[in-house]
Amino acid sequence: MKNIRRKVIFGFVVLMTVVLLSAVATIFFDQAVLVRKGTLYRVKVHDKVVALTFDDGPSSAWTPKILDELKKAGVKATFFMIGKHVAQYPEIARRVAAEGHEIGNHTYEHGVLIYYKMDELKDEIEATEHIIKEVTGQTTRYFRPPKAWITNQEERKIKEMGYETILWSLNSKDWVTFDDKYIVKFLLKHIQPGDIILFHDAGGVFGVENGDRHETVKTIPKLAEKLKEKGYRFVTISELLKLTKENVNK
């Protein structure tokens, strides 16, 4: 009986250790670095420019607040939207487009792509493309895989569909609800021209429906002010790519 109890306790300790290590890795390690090859995650430019991107919206609670702060700061960003959220909150998606921001495709259901068959992946992207076009009038050709989980086969399929896969070079980890001062300090320490920064306008640790974006909202004006002081300006993904092509031509 004692041996069984020891084994149960040992198994529980091992399980908790694995869970704890996984949680720490998720919080402090950016998995996108493992799949960046073949994607656009930053560009080489001489200009001091950065691209702010927001995932998982639109959200009725947080996207309007984020849009307010972007407007005050005079910053344009790129929003990678989930199709079903666009269908749920069409008026907010329209506001994003109306205020001059760019919209990207973030799948319809926000499922993990590595579990999808190629026809399922195609359906997810096309359904999202359709609803974004119908609601906002924008036709997007930029795609971001949920959680950055993507295979080489999926990358090829996405490219065949005419999309550019966009990841990021700096992860704010705002979904962890780090303090805004910490987020700003971290980004300022690592920022380089041509960086793509990941934020979220919806979602949290346990899903994309809820979450607390208070720290994201507070971060935007502080980060915008500090980067402008350093001579940076903010661009959308398409503007960033345009600058890249101009540099290549030069």
Please report which band the strand proportion falls in: under 5%, 5-15%, 15-25%, 25-35%, 35-45% or over 45%: 5-15%
Measured distance between first and last alpha carbons: 77 Å
Structural class: alpha/beta
Mind telling me the CATH superfamily name of the largest domain? Glycoside hydrolase/deacetylase
DSSP summary, beta strand count? 8
How many domains, as an integer?
2
Could you say what the CATH architecture of the largest domain is? Alpha-Beta Barrel
Q: Percentage of helical residues?
A: 40-55%
CATH topology of the largest domain: TIM Barrel
**What gross morphology would you assign?**
globular
Overall pLDDT metric = 87
Specify the CATH class of the largest domain.
Alpha Beta
Low-pLDDT sequence parts: 13-27
Radius of gyration: 19 Å
Query: What is the string of helix and strand elements?
Result: HEHEHHEHEHEEHEHEH
Count of discrete alpha- or pi-helical segments spanning 4 or more residues: 9
User: What summary fits the major beta sheet?
Assistant: 6 strands, parallel
Give an overview in words.
The protein starts with a helix and ends with a helix. Strands 1, 2, 3, 6, 7 and 8 form a six-stranded parallel β-sheet that branches. It has a two-stranded parallel sheet with strand order 4-5. The protein is built from nine helices and eight strands. It is an alpha/beta fold and 250 residues long. The protein has two domains: 1-34; 37-249, Alpha-Beta Barrel (TIM Barrel), CATH 3.20.20.
